[in-house]
């Protein structure tokens, strides 16, 4: 399988030819069996297992991601998705029988998941392996073809992904198309049957607008400012450990990372002490020695530093961290207090290792704060009382929610993963991912001896008038 060349002349012609070559294959895949699809996924699993070292090397080359972190947050997540899908695909794709109303007696009804056809997966740079191949697992399981457009910021990982896929699929089934903004815009002009995009809300709106021109289906996995509430009855040591991991995993470049903390004032100082201890224990407290990855590039590092400087210049205080090195690509884990909601750091998604802390007295304050902002991709609550947990769940909306932990919901293949409103459209993972790449086709079979519909057809008589009156009154 060749990767389409993005620079120079001929890009559009090559891409269109590739797209058109996938049409007849998509029609063949509609008839593929569950066994055949599982065989493809099993082959993909084997190639990934054989490629573990080059995967780790590529991610380190792109932004110095530690090998252990690559295993946990990139390779394992994809393998878990493959294994879960292979185990359950037969059950998921079995036609689902549904009840038929009494008014249509003599009929049989079911819902069939069938492939949508040709699909496009636009992957981000923050988890370039995971977020390229994770959605692909669902697309292949559902019986589709796919073009993958990875981020231009992770060239080493893109090459590994392309090499892996070339050992499993023909390019008329799955191919990688590399490029930047212009190339992505051209891809979005093509009439895909479904587009799966992971990235920012701003770009998500562009993708959705482009998809609308062809009435393509979309799944948009976006982001937002994910709030984390820590109430006074939380287990503070456990909370500090989990927040430190969830926030500074991938140097904070995670769509479901805690974006800011809402901490009860009575336990704020104790929690901060424990957070500092956890940061020191896990990351040595020194950016140059930290076993977490770099910021992806200088542009994003400079953006994060701008949020930091705006906060400090407007009265925020650094509790720990605040070191920016290596052209702002190496940023120490940083805790910030005395922030206000008119600071830039509290207005846009941070997507980096800065963690603002805001105090509250009453739980209702946190609800007011959260509901004043666009619906987040994730909401986290730490506290032991079930009534308070229920209060937050009932009064705040979010794409996903975790109680007494953070970020782990992404790894649960039994749960749908997706946003709401500004944080996303639709879901992925497991059954929900296969469903996203499928058309839910209703099938209804009617008998031919005495179909109930005959009572609704002209010519009308007294019996049919009585039937219509009964329908209106009782059904």
From TrEMBL:
Protein name in the entry: Aldehyde dehydrogenase
GO term, biological process aspect, one: aldehyde metabolic process
Ribonucleoprotein keyword on record: no
Keywords, ordered alphabetically: NAD, Oxidoreductase
Assigned GO CC terms: cytoplasm
InterPro entries according to UniProt: Ald_DH/histidinol_DH, Ald_DH_C, Ald_DH_CS_CYS, Ald_DH_CS_GLU, Ald_DH_N, Aldehyde_DH_dom, Aldehyde_DH_NAD(P)
Domain Aldehyde dehydrogenase: 13-439
The keyword Oxidoreductase is annotated on this UniProt entry: yes
Domain of life of the native organism: Bacteria
Protein family membership: Belongs to the aldehyde dehydrogenase family.
Active site: 221, 255
GO molecular function list: aldehyde dehydrogenase (NAD+) activity
């Amino acid at each position: 399988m060749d990767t389409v060349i993005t620079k120079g002349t001929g890009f559009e012609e090559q891409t269109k030819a590739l797209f058109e070559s996938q049409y007849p294959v998509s029609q063949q895949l509609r008839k593929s069996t569950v066994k055949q699809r599982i065989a493809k996924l099993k082959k993909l699993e084997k190639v990934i297992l054989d490629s573990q070292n080059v995967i780790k090397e590529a991610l380190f080359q792109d932004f110095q991601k530690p090998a252990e972190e690559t295993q946990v947050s990139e390779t394992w997540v994809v393998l878990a998705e493959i294994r879960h899908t292979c185990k359950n695909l037969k059950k998921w794709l079995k036609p689902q029988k549904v009840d038929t109303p009494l008014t249509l007696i003599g009929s049989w009804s079911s819902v069939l998941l069938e492939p949508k056809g040709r699909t496009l997966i636009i992957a981000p740079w923050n988890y370039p392996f995971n977020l390229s191949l994770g959605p692909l697992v669902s697309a292949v399981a559902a019986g589709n073809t796919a073009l993958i457009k990875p981020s231009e910021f992770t060239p080493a990982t893109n090459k590994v992904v392309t090499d892996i896929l070339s050992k499993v699929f023909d390019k008329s089934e799955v191919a990688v198309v590399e490029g930047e903004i212009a190339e992505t815009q051209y891809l979005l002009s093509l009439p895909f049957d479904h587009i799966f995009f992971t990235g920012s809300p701003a770009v998500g709106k562009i993708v959705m607008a482009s998809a609308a021109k062809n009435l393509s289906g979309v799944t948009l996995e976006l982001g937002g400012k994910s709030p984390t509430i820590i109430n006074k009855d939380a287990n503070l040591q456990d909370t500090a450990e989990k927040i430190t991991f969830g926030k500074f995993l991938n140097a904070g470049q995670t769509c479901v990372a805690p974006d800011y903390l809402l901490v009860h004032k009575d336990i704020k100082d104790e929690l901060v002490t424990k957070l500092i201890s956890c940061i020191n224990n896990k990351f040595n407290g020194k950016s140059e020695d930290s076993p977490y990855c770099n910021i992806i590039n200088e542009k994003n590092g400079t953006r994060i530093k701008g949020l930091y400087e705006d906060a400090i210049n407007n009265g925020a205080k650094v509790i720990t961290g605040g070191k920016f090195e290596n052209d702002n690509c190496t940023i120490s884990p940083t805790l910030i207090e005395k922030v206000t909601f008119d600071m830039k750091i509290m207005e846009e998604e941070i997507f980096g290792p800065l963690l603002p802390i805001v105090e509250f007295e009453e739980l209702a304050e946190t609800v007011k704060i959260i509901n004043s902002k666009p619906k987040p991709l994730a909401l986290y609550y730490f506290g032991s009382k079930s009534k308070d947990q229920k209060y937050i769940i009932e009064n705040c909306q979010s794409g996903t929610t975790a109680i007494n932990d953070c970020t782990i919901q992404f790894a649960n293949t039994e749960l749908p993963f997706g946003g709401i409103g500004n944080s996303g459209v639709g879901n992925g993972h497991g059954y929900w991912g296969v469903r996203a790449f499928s058309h839910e086709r209703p099938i209804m079979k009617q008998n031919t001896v005495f179909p109930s519909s005959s009572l609704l057809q002209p010519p009308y008589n007294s019996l049919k008038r009585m039937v219509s009156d009964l329908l209106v009154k009782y059904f």
